[in-house]
Structures are given as C-alpha cells and as structure tokens.
Amino acid sequence: MPDSPALDTTPCSTPIADYAVLGDGRSCALVSRTGSVDWLCLPDFDSPACFAALLGTPENGRWLLTVRDPVSVTRRYLGDSFVLETTYTTATGTARVVDAMPPGDGRADLVRELEVLDGHVTIEHEWVVRFGYGAYEPWVSRVDDDHRTGRHAIRAVAGPDSLLLRGTRLPRAEDHRHRDVFEASEGERFTFSSTWTPSWGATPPPLSVAHVIATATDSWHDWARQTPYSGPYREPLVRSLLVLRLLTSSTTGGIVAAATTSLPEDFGGERNWDYRYCWLRDAAMTLEALVESGYHDEIVGWRDWLLRAVAGDPEDLQIMYGVDGRRDLPEHELDHLPGYAGSRPVRVGNAAVDQVQNDVLGEVMCALDMARDAGLTETADSWSLQRHLVDALVEHWDRPDRGIWEVRGPERDFVHSRVMSWAAIDRAVRGVEVHGLDGPVEHWKAARDEIHAQVMEHGFDTGLGAFVQYYGAEHTDASLLQMAQVGFIDPTDERFVGTVREIQRTLATEHGFVRRYETEQTGDGLEGDEAPFLVCSFWLVDALARTGQTDEAQQLLDTLVGSANDLGLMAEQYDDGRARMAGNFPQAFSHLGLVRAVHSLDRATSDCGGLHSAGHHAPSTTSPGTTGTGTTSTGTTTTGTAEAPSGAPRTREDAP
C-alpha cells in the first residue's frame, strides 16, 4: 500500500466558493472540491465541530475521500437536492464520489460512495476526528460491529461524543486517525458511513448507502417542486429556497443564520462571528421568502419555536436564541485554532445576544402578517404573545439601540430601527382591522403615527436629499432600502428615490454590489473594513424595481446571481474587486435576499409581461391608519419559468 503523506499544518485557505454544503435538517457539512469534509458539527448546527479543518488545519479534523492527481474535477447536486456528486478524471481513469446526509431520520450520519467509472485510479481516504472544535484527540479503536457479525468498524470517542466509521474497506487505525491509500479499477465501488452517537449510547444499525442517496435525493426533490414559481430565475431561486430549508431545524423549527462560525468578513482581521444561531430577524425574513414562494408549513414550526423561546416576559425578548431555544450564548474565543486563512479570533457564541435591537420585532410581525394573509390561523397563545410584544415596543421604541448591523460602537437612534418599529405596530393594527383579531388599535395607531412623524422630521437630511443612518448623521445606510419594502414610504416618493440614489453613489461598487455602511463614519467599534453585503445588494434590486427602474434592477440581479458558486451557493459577502466570497457560508440572508428580489422584480414587470410571470399578485394598498405616505404589499406571490440568465458572470474562484 502506498504511504500516506504527512498532514498539512498550514491554515485552511481553500476558497469559500470551493465548498459544497450537505445537510440533514439538524446540521450541515462543508465539503471541498477535493473531497475533504472540513466542517461538521454534530448532532446540531450549534454543536461543537468534530471536523474543524475549515478554521484550522487538517490536524483539527477532516474526512477526506478523493482521487489522487486529477486533471479535472467536476461536481453537481443531483437535481434539486443536497446530494453531491463529484467526478475526478485522471490520466489513467475516472471515479465518482457521491456524498449525502439522510434528512429527517433522527440520526446523525454522513454517507459517501466512491465508484471507479473507467480505467484505474489511486484513492486516498483519511478520517481525522477531533472533537471540541478540533481541540481533542479521541481514543480511536477498531471494534466489532454489533449489527454485522464478523464485520468491524472504527470508533472514535472523547467525553460525550462518539463517531463510528463503517465501510467496505477499513484498515486499522493508526496514530489517532484512519488512513488508507489504495489502487482501484473500473467497476469497483466503496461505501462509507460516519455516524455520531452519545459516547454512552448504543451503536445504531448500519445504513444502506445506496438507499440513503436515493431517499435523500427524493426528499429534497419533493420539497423543491412545491413552489409554483416558474420564471426565468427558477434555478437560482429554487436553490436559494433549498438553502433556507437546509438551515431550518427539522427537530425544533429554529432557523439558523448560517452553517458556520468565524469565516472572515475581512481576511486576516477580527470581523469573525458565529452565525449558527437563530436570529429572530433572519428567521422572520426567511419565512417571508418561503411564504412568498408558496411554502407555508415552515412558518407553523417556527411560530411554535418562537412561543417556546420567548415565553415569559416580553421585556426579556432577545434578538437571538440557540437552535433549541436556549438563551445563554456566551461569546468566547478558541485560541487553539489559527482561523480561516489565518483570520483570528475564532469565536463561538455571540455577544450580540445581549444587545438592544429595536428593529427585530418589525421583521417578526411582518412575517407573521404575511403568514396570516396566506391563510395561517392564529392560536390564542400566538396572538397573545404578539400583542404583549407590541405593547412592550410601544413603551420603548424611542430608546437608542445597536441596530440591524449589531454595531459594537455606541447605541444610536438608528433610522432603520425606527422604521421597523413602525412596521411592527402597523402589522399589529392590520391584525385587528384586516384579520379581526383583538387589541388596543387606537393606542397602537397613535404610536405608529408618532414614529412616522419623528422619522420624517429627524431621519431625513434635506441637504443630502436622503434618509440617514441615524439621527444627526450625514451619511446613509443600505438597510434604508427596506423603507418602501415594508410600506413606510411610497417608493415613488422623492425622499426614497433620493435615498436609493445616495446609496448607489456612496455604498455601491462599480458592479453594483452594496456595502452595508461606511465603516469609518459609522464607528462600529471594530478594526478593518468589509466586502459588499449580498442581502443589501438584493435590497437594491428590490428598490430599483419598486421605483420603476426595472432594466437596471434586472441587470443587477443577473450580476448578483453570477456571484454564487458553481452550485448556486452564496456567502454573506462578495468582494467583486477580488472576485471572492467572504463571511459565513452558506448564508440565509443572501439567499432570502435573492428570493425576494426575484419576486419583487417579477411583480414590477408582470403587468407588461417582462418576466413571463404567471399567477396572481396581491395589490398594494394604503396601510391602515397611515397618512397615505406608506404602501404595504400583502399576500403571497406566484410567478413565471425558464433557466437562469445565461450571461450571469462566474466568480474567478469558480473557474474550472
């Protein structure tokens, strides 16, 4: 048997775009183009990673199954699924690896199948388990398989965690890892499965790898086909919807912001955060994207999760929770990890959990209002919770906060937070006036109108001709692109049009990608800078569509779609100057932004047949109780089909 090479000890610098994601409804794995599982947290999204090479080196844990010396590597998902097929072609042969995580079976498994299609190849297989985010070497041993007489498995155990590796070829473990390099010829097929269990638990029975691959593919396909959208952006829209489903816990109903922690916004800098938790804001926006695309079941699970997580006193509402609804998410640094591309610190937990962010309830109430319009019936408990949350907001909407961007600088009177406070109360008013629910509607209307008047007086800079980031500021903020989206202001109002224009002038790159804000002027309490934020760029598409600039909106949407990797996945940010992804991956914000931008552009062009739309669109109506300056689009949207635009650019990282 050929010798395996020594482990690489340099920090991971694999381009983020080179990763695929797998998932089972409880957690996600990141798999590189070279066949290395470099990130996997088990059993849940926010559990400690057992493969953490993404934020360190191979010595921090990975599962590599690859073919040596390929001259070409191609990959794809099997249709509308998260079953990954990677094909390696060498000078002597071709082999295919299929990876999958079985969804919805209550287990925590990852299966891999390698088949030699022609000729002969050299296969490299390495299983390096390091529990506790790559910190702990487990005890690795060869054990009898309790469920297969005469067969063996490799077991890694440390503290509460255990991983069991089964397969058709398992040499003895050496030096706290499993290694193998061997030759294989046409027609040979090898299957492997890695299963997590509590270290004290019984060993689960083996899985049929072929059955897992088939059922996982069918399960994702069945879910994807439910959307009625059939327009020209169907392919990227469906992939984005699938990502949102992937980031939704099938166990608790919680929705995480991303699958990873500490992928840098600023390479080599400190802007590295843990996004494996459930932000109310991100989850609510995710649900709006799903409902708008014809998916209603997910909102019931999330609403029930919300009831459990919030509970108690509305004054104790947090902006985020653990996947299971826990409140305590202390932030600390993992000093043993060098960080992705040497970007430190690596953080676990998130101190933003203790921040005041007044916009959050606005996103929640907008999502629940959309769900009511789509036919979701409120329970006594769910509406009671919303009433109490809105009543609490009415009492303190005018306190300074840290805003949607969770700045670690001073609290301010952020205009976006005021706008979303208005939206929260507005949707409560609609609950009473449109859906027949009970509540102190006149009291709510008075607060809503007071917020509107205050923002118009203090949030708009006449010299700048635009709304500003916070009261007294002389610069704008990309979050203000949502003002028309939530109905606070008519999109044709010159004050909003001027704001869009100013954001394009000061925050957009030459290709149209939009930064959140100007870091030096905002004073966000952090060193360094960051790349353009993809959801902000999609908000610009929405704003352009709403202001009648549909050609420009479509051109920008095509560019943004082209920033995804070859599998249609997007990170939090995209540096168009360097053609590289930045930030955590895959990111719910980015994908929900794409979904909503597609629907917004479709609505804007459907009357003149611009996107071949089909189905109905809910009309915009004056929001109850306003002075007529705001419009709110209610109800769900269904649209038209074809392929994604062929002219969309690819990233340089994704070039073959």
UniProtKB/TrEMBL annotation:
GO terms for molecular function: hydrolase activity, hydrolyzing O-glycosyl compounds. InterPro entries: 6-hairpin_glycosidase_sf (IPR008928), 6hp_glycosidase-like_sf (IPR012341), GH15-like (IPR011613), Trehalase-like_N (IPR045582). Keywords: Hydrolase. GO terms for biological process: carbohydrate metabolic process. Signal peptide: none annotated. It comes from the Bacteria. Residues 609-656 are annotated as: Disordered. Residues 618-649 have a biased composition (Low complexity). The keyword Membrane does not apply. Residues 13-135 form the Trehalase-like N-terminal domain. Residues 232-598 form the GH15-like domain. This is Glycoside hydrolase family 15 protein. It comes from Sanguibacter biliveldensis. The lineage of its organism: Bacteria, Bacillati, Actinomycetota, Actinomycetes, Micrococcales.
